[in-house]
């Protein structure tokens, strides 16, 4: 199936459209109920939310990894993310997730075991423009002789990222993949993403807890709380940004006000949504949304 990319590009108002999404994991209450999201072409959208708010799940749904309702619920560049498998096969929709064992863009599932070189991995991806491949190898400062089972986490991550970007994506979903990268690699990669959006009209959704350098990088923010979209707007329109030091402090204030709201709800006898905290909740081993700040 040919996608007639350029014709589509002109017609599309949104490269990502989520309409009335419902989703729950087995035997759990719904994580998303009537969730809507629209992201326009060329956007670099930060997906923000506390730990467990649903960012990874949403990105995986956008990546077509979960079937959710009919063909019109999740549309990516005009196609059903789940049903139109060509989206992923062609590399137009790429997903870079948090772990090496996950699907790497259009390259499929990457096995972890075995003594493979970086060269073997990277050159194993077919149908790639050699110039783009060289550019990425250079950008990510990859030594093709690296043995994948002997390199550091950050070096392994560079190879993973390189493979995921080999095909020129139209939509790229990033689930905190820059976490192991050093500052230079991270900034160079962010610059590359910016070029891809500005030059080719590509769209990026980036879930992260690290906000350094993102004020001037991101064009939009989408903030979710417990599976609900709280804000979705241009970064330039975020009011709090006008008086805040940086994006980090704005996000910190959003997440802190979540905690306050939750505490109020927990102590409100009329509320059946939140349970009242117990003594055990003071345990240092209990998961906390503020772990987000330390990642
Ligand atoms: N495979 C799964 N089965 C059941 N529940 C899951 C599964 N994956 C995630 N969840 C639950 O869904 C909710 C959202 O998880 P998700 O991983 O999407 O959050 P997140 O915003 O990406 O969090 P983080 O910032 O910690 O990465 C959490 O309550 C989590 O426990």
Could you say what the CATH topology is called? Answer: Rossmann fold
Instruction: Evaluate the radius of gyration.
Output: 20 Å
- Oligomeric composition of the shown chains: single chain
Approximately how much helix is present in the residues?
A: 25-40%
Which sequence of SSEs, written as H and E, runs from N to C? Answer: HEEEHEEHEHHHEHEEEHH
N→C terminal distance: 42 Å
C-alpha geometry: globular
Into how many domains do the coordinates divide? 1
The number of distinct helices, counting runs of at least 4 residues, comes to: 9
The CATH class: Alpha Beta
The assigned structural class equals alpha/beta
Name a few traits of the molecule.
18% strand, ATP-binding, 10 strands, alpha/beta, P-loop_NTPase, Rossmann fold, globular, 295 residues, binds adenosine-5'-triphosphate, 6-stranded mixed sheet, 4-stranded antiparallel sheet
Protein described:
The longest helix is centred in the last third of the chain and has 21 residues, at 247-267. The protein has a single domain (5-112, 153-294), classed as 3-Layer(aba) Sandwich (Rossmann fold). It is of the alpha/beta class and 295 residues long. The termini are far apart. The protein has helices spanning 5-11, 55-62, 86-89, 118-123, 130-139, 153-165, 183-200, 240-243, 247-267, and strands at 16-23, 32-39, 44-48, 74-76, 79-80, 93-96, 171-175, 203-207, 220-225, 228-234. The radius of gyration is 20 Å and the shape is globular. β7 (171-175), α7 (183-200) and β8 form a beta-alpha-beta unit. The strands form two sheets. A six-stranded mixed β-sheet has the order 6-7-8-3-9-10, sandwiched between helices. It has a four-stranded antiparallel β-sheet with strand order 2-1-4-5, with no helix packed on it. Helices cover 31% and strands 18% of the residues. Bound molecules: adenosine-5'-triphosphate (ATP). The site of adenosine-5'-triphosphate has 11 residues, from α2.
